[in-house]
Design a protein that fits this description.
Structural class of chain A: alpha/beta
Oligomer: heterodimer
Strand order of the largest sheet of chain A: 14-20-16-15-17-18-19
Order of helices and strands of chain B: HHHHHHH
Largest interface: A-B, 69 and 63 residues
Number of helices of chain B: 7
Shape of chain A: elongated
Number of strands of chain B: 0
CATH architecture of one domain in chain A: Alpha-Beta Barrel
Helix content of chain B: 55-70%
Strand content of chain B: under 5%
Strand content of chain A: 5-15%
Structural class of chain B: mainly alpha
Distance between the termini of chain A: 70 Å
Largest sheet of chain A: 7 strands, mixed
Largest sheet of chain B: none
Helix content of chain A: 40-55%
Radius of gyration of chain B: 17 Å
Amino acid sequence: MTSKRFEARAGRAVNRDSFIREWPDTGLVLFNSPHDPKPGIRLSAGRIVELDGKPEREFDILDRFIARRAINPAVAGEAMAMDPLVIARRLADFETPRGEVVRLVSGLSPARIMQVVDALNVVEMMMALQKMRARRTPSNQAHVTNRKENPALIAADAAEAVERGFAELETTVGVARYAPLSAMALLIGSQTGRGAALTQCAVEEALGLRLALLGLTTYAETLSVYGTEKAFRDGDDSPWSKAFLASAYASRGIKVRFTSGTGSEALMGHAEGKSMLYLETRCLMAIKGAGSQGVQNGSISCIALPESLPGGVRGVLAENLVAAMLDLEVASGNDAMASHSEIRKSAKLMLQFLPGTDFIFSGYSSMPREDNLFGGGNFDTEDLDDYNVLQRDMQVDGGVRPVREPEVLAVRRRAAEAVRAVFDELGLPPVSEAEIEAAVAARSSADMPDRDVIADLGAADRFLSEGRGGIDVIRALARRGYTDIARKILDVQKLRISGDFLQTSAVVLPGPRVLSAVNDPNDYRGPGTGYHLGAERKAEIDDIPQALDPQTIGVTGGEPFLVEAGEAKPGEDANEIVIAVGPAFGGALGATLLGLPHRAVLDALAAGIQCEGMQARLVRVCGTSDCGMIGFTGSSLSGSGIAIGIQSKGTTVIHRRGLEPLNNLELFPQAPNLTLESYRAIGRNAASYARGRPVSPVPLQIDNMARLKYIVRTTILHLRETEQVIAGKPPQELRYAG
Amino acid sequence: MPVDYPIAEKRPDLVETPSGLRFEEITLEAVLEGRVAMQDLRVTAAALCAQAGIAEAAGRLQLAENLLRAAELVSVPEDRILAVYNALRPGRATREHLLALADELESRYAAGRCAQLIREAAER
């Protein structure tokens, strides 16, 4: 026997995700593999001679590098002697300042750091991350790529991403030779409109460095690190080569962020039976030792692997936290596809979104995920309205701002046109008018005309071999009248000279203004401290385009069609059914919640009443907007003793004289479920009660979403009706105007 | 917060380009007239040393060390930098070759910190 409910659940998105049990021998475990070492540091003459149970002569390259460069021996004695639970409490407890935790952590071994974070549950980890993130103001990074590597589309997407508030833009290429053109298009787009953002093009190290030297990019984050020696070798690097490369980038004024993440060692078959968090902690310490200002981690491209295991999402939060504890800038993942389930993806996102990180995404897909050449797009352009709503709901700064379509179309067009001008000026293959039009309006690269790829690649090769770069782009822009973009690119490139954005967690804001952990240090010390939304930013986050002005809801503008004809007296005609309407009915308000015109509603009620051979009499109740009281008052005036009470929003009751106000014959509380057919049936039923005939149920639509959809309108329409109440004014006889 | 950070904003007088231009001399007009080239938009060793001081004051010793290594590399040409980087990758160079590179950096470019990093990599 099978259950249809199990069958329905089996079809749910979450069940397309992979789940496995732990297998520690292969590193398929988040914390505490039996093969993880016991924490320990032994010092001799101020030198670390034993690390996590391993004597110096047995050190692998990571142990050696970490012992030499990542741990402060002057703090190690004190910090390692502390109960890890005490350090864990200082992490989560906001009384202990960030700097004190950073100091203690600088003296801990990798195995001890893992122990410390494992003592925290996810809420405590979030509290810790809120305090430990290096920069006070959170921000965000976007991915900008497309399958056709179309430069006009890259520029348009870049311009829109910056308009939406992303502080860093990252592109990459399907065909490596496209890199200079893509990097250039990204650079131009990034400084169109409000500017300014840092940009990068993720390619192989030598080419990446070259693009940066040519002034086509301003930062790099391709320096990958692994937690075991074998995985490091498979990645064709060593901690020293990475450290040297970091210095090389800095020597040219280029910001660098390393990359690591749980699961990579297991995926490469080189986890050596160690837990993911232990290995990731080693990565992060190597990164710190190399002198990097920061890291992108949070499993990144391996995310579905930790998420297949128990505690995977918690583990990924823990690795972001460890990076922050080591005083590194954190760009906290959320980029690669992590789940088929929207519920699961959103829940995971909250762990970084709520506490805030230096970059909540290390690549929010600013285009549809099918155009994401990183294999990313866990959240993409079509999720942006959701993201903006989440910021507004939680009053959390997620680094993104709501935008209006006209402003987006304008910057997209300008960016695409600027790229066309630069391509033309520099003798690159032409960008057509059709490409511009398509790039402005495109959903994805599927909407773009094809380019001559052979010609593009030839031109890209020449561009690179001639050593052209940022300066040529600036000149070309200025010559073609795009002086503002030229100036902004120059202003950001100029910042290289001072090296200001080499400091931890630096972003370049419009101005351009550098904000980093130096001039914007996270000073969170509990409620009322740290980052808070300023009035301007709050207004920006609150102002989503979908939000209506409540003052405009339900305003009809039409002429009242009912006029009052004196005080209503108790009727004597046993053939009459009173229709008692609310104070705003057919006056200040003209239609029900569902949008049914009041006139049509009255006609339907009267028609139903007439079906049973009775007559409708119209009365306005002036002293209350309550549906039950309207019906109650109506019945006291009705010759037959039966009345239909109706509020302006459409909520209806059938009442009989002598019943208590809140007791009644039939109540139809869900106005959105009432159609004209329902009102006709209500009229018929009311008359049937008066005649003592059997009544049949009124047909209603069943819509579970009705309350969700209409509660705002309900509230506002009811407010308007209540505004029309005149206390003590007796019910009025009504007739149709004109 | 160190009073001089961000340097470009607070103390532009402290920085000049490798070719000796002052920060405020780098204008769009100068670029268009050919007085500013890409080489001018590079960080200088002096600026990197100042940033290292700022990092150190913020307690970021490793970042400061990296910036000091970077200051040493300002005058090292790209092809030499890439040669050293490649030699440091796994299995690329013998111990002797690495030590020779370290000596080269130290003697020709006064890059003592970088030389020390390379020698450390060559241990064992």
